[in-house]
Design brief:
748 residues; mainly alpha; five-stranded antiparallel beta sheet; 11 strands; globular
Length: 748
Amino acid sequence: MRKALEHALAIVSEELDPSLGMLLNEFEQELFRLADLARNPGSESGYMQTLRTFRMNRADLVPQFMLELEALLAAIRTATPPPAADTPSTGTSYRTLTLVEDAVMDEDSVLREIASRQEGRASLALHLLGQRFGVLAGCPAFDAMRIPLGPQSLCRAMRNASLALEISHDARLLLYRLFDRHVMSQYARILEKLDAAMGDDGILPGLTYVPLRTRPGSPGDGLADGETGPPAGTATVAAGSKARPPAASPAARHAGDGQRPHTAWMAQSTTAFANDDEEAAFAMLRQLMSGRRELLGKLRPERPGDTRLQLSTSDVVNALGALQAQPPSPMGQQRGLMEIKQTLLAQARQQRGQGATLSDQDNDTFELLHLLYGQLEGEVRGDAPASALIRRLQLPLLRLALQDPAFFVRSQHPARQLLNTVAETAAKWLDPDDFDPQLLLPLQQAVSHVVDNFDGDPAVFEASNEQLSGHLQAQVRKAEMLERRHVEAARGKEKLEVAKLRASRTLADMIGDQRLPKFSRALLSQAWADVLTLTLLRQGEDSDEWKRQVEVTRQVITACSRGEANADPALAQHIESALAQVGYHGEEAGVIAQRLTSCRAEDEDPASRTELAMKLKARTRLGEDGASPRRPPPTPRTPEEQGRYEQLRVMPFGSWIEFVTNQQGDVVRRRMSWFSPVTDNALFVNQRGQRVGEHSLDSLARMLVAGQARIVTAERGRLVDRAWQAAMSALRSFAGRGDATQLGGVPA
């Protein structure tokens, strides 16, 4: 155990140390910049004083931060779970409210937002890590709040360590924002590396994400490609296997990673296939292209006397550079890759006086990029604002691929990331409202920067990615904030539903087998049930107010069951006041109170009783939306539908699902932000975090089985990876290879 914890701390220390150094340098520069821009001498003096204090104490931050993490790991078996910031303790009542410093609230909210964002991005890795730390601590699995190296722990460690700097509250807030930008931006990758290292150290080495498997012979044996979304968050160890399993190959290991549900936002990078064997993938790619050339050679025999000059790769790259430097067509039309190839060969013939050809390797590069672009065109909308930018990237990408074939097999290649970012903003799975128009100008600037400046140096693509990253992160933060608001609203509705169920059960248990007048029972189950629900929602089940309302309910039931003729004025007044809190008007509440406390009213004025009954029927109950009718009870599910239903209930929040919108097979991608285990309602948002509707998990399971929806897996999450898969599938079929191959970071 000690060795595993020391190894985990060493990994985190090694990964975070450079980022923490960048954080300190950036913080110092930012303080100096703020002092320089200060509008009055007082502010400038404050910034300079903070800067001097920071320079005196900056050497203490990193060691103190690591000591905080070390202390958390050392207390893994003794530490009690910290209370959640938004969850009141059991013994807290409204009589013990105290004031909290605004500074404390600001720091808590900033750090909580940072941690929540990371929890959403790395939910599966955190789940697996929690299982492993649970084993080390000899207790149930840790949740994200308790994991010693989890996002909450890192944020708490940074807050405690920042006290050593002795800087002001505003300066600490600035430090936290830079901490989010420089340190936490790579946190998901660190978590995956840490999880793999703990597995190698023998802490649940077989722990992995296991897809949902149906029984042999069931209708769900064959599932469509891209639909088999394993139950994310499910961590299992093979039972009965005492010997450690042999190490899986990179292809097999990452094939399992690819089956995870895709949870990243649009154009976010993924690390699911970051450690693939590039040499093996490139060797297989060359083998496929060689088989293709052999087949084409048989179909296209050589003509005698046909001698052509073979152009060198440098000549091809230089010629393409000249084409890239030409101004765009006045009509705005971009040539295809095969047209570019023909233009290149025609220019070589004119310059050299004889026919020219490309080497096999260069010709393969043209063909591969042509295949990739062909698949991309089928995945993007032609009328999308960013679709023309994809064509503008052809020449720079072609020149890069000729010099650096790793573009095809490295999923994290900067040029491939830029192409994916541009392509996903024009993807067919986006509604027009899903694209943020403010992102178009940064996309155009990034593409123009590559077209104007690329001359063989891949750093140009990295610079464009860095230029775009700030805009993308801002868009993601905005979407996450909007999504969080919708989730909080949905959780509020769930609390209301829970309160309704609890109130209904309490009322039913108290009535039991007692015989009550029909109209009195109806008033209790509707008007008074709303009062119980509101009391339970506001005050809680342990409050004195709830106990008082339960006692009043008991008195009402007793009065109605005994047929008491005279109403208790105090009881009627209390009921009338309680009904007013749930929206009943004074006269209407008074009539209901009289009927609940006096059975004589049952036989008086039948017309008014009928009128009141009609009003109650037309009235919208507490928390109900009159525009949305109640769902009928679901019909029994088939075994395959039940399997999908159970799979959905363990999927991580933030998983993407594609819904088929018409008979042509067009899809729209939606993010399952949250679902309620009580009501089974799932909340869906679009790429901008805007709420687009709800589905019950039952209906969603039926849609998955019917092919009207499919879970987006990690291997098909990014558009470029998805297009590359399709291109490699076509290439294998053409070359006569039907075996699954790992190419370009995804299973081809």
